[in-house]
Amino acid sequence: MLRVWRRRAEKVIIRGYRQACGSGGGVDTALLGSYNAARSAGFTNIDIYFFPCTGTQPTGVACKSPQTQVSEIESYISRNGMQIGRIWLDIEPTSGECNAWNLGASANTALAREYASIIRASSYNWGIYANGNQWSGMFGSRSADIASDLPLWAVQFDRTPGVNTVTTFMGGWTTAYAKQYWLDTTLCGGGVDLNSFLG
């Protein structure tokens, strides 16, 4: 995932944590290699996104607690001396093997607010990545406020760059910090999603 401005990439966002539903969540095994590759390419503005295990698993393996999953990614960052600007809590449903956010509106809301409470208390900078069009399906209402005090990375696939062009708000947010506006395109020969960021 890249921020693009004036036809060059300024920022890179790397997947740092996976649902890994066979084990209840886990640090992405490619994280350190991807981070080192980004640094070698000259990137200094690097964020990661955190896609936790949040659903009921057909394997019978329970998701690790929110505190455990957050602690795993933060400890990994610290242990490897990684310079990360912000960690983005990825809140989006999935179907199939991992079944993210399939607990029902009440339980989903309680779980998301537990994550929000934990990351607010973190020494790292965190934000929320989410699509307003998926919000009511997870939390029962588009207006359900999970963490509107935290920066929002909004998903709006209109192929129009610019954070100030976000219109699909939800959950108490009225402004965004970032916008993902183009999914699955190509830049410099590689597959990317395109984003605009304020920082």
Beta-strand segment tally: 9
- Unreliable stretches: 1-7
Assign the CATH architecture.
Alpha-Beta Barrel
Count of separate DSSP helical elements: 4
Mean pLDDT across all residues, rounded? 91
Global geometry: globular
Rg value: 16 Å
Distance between the termini: 15 Å
CATH class: Alpha Beta
Helix content: 10-25%
Class based on secondary structure composition and strand pairing: alpha/beta
Percent of sequence in beta strands: 25-35%
Domain unit count: 1
CATH topology name: TIM Barrel
Biggest β-sheet strands, sense, barrel = 8 strands, mixed, barrel
Task: List the helices and strands in order.
Answer: EEEHEHEHEHEEE
CATH superfamily: Glycosidases
The strand line-up of the biggest sheet is: 1-2-4-5-6-7-8-9
Briefly characterize the structure:
The protein is built from 4 helices and 9 strands. With 199 residues, the protein is α/β, with parallel strands linked by helices.
Describe this structure in words.
24% of the residues lie in helices and 27% in strands. Strands 1-2-4-5-6-7-8-9 form an eight-stranded mixed beta barrel. It is globular, with a radius of gyration of 16 Å. The protein is an alpha/beta fold and 199 residues long. The protein has one domain: Alpha-Beta Barrel (TIM Barrel). Helix 4 links the parallel strand 6 and strand 7. It is built from four helices and nine strands, in the order βββαβαβαβαβββ.
List the SSEs and their pairings:
Blueprint: E1 2-5, E2 8-18, E3 26-27, H1 31-40, E4 46-50, H2 66-79, E5 87-91, H3 105-120, E6 126-130, H4 132-139, E7 152-155, E8 178-187, E9 190-197
Parallel strand pairs: 1-9, 2-4, 4-5, 5-6, 6-7, 7-8
Antiparallel strand pairs: 1-2, 2-3, 8-9
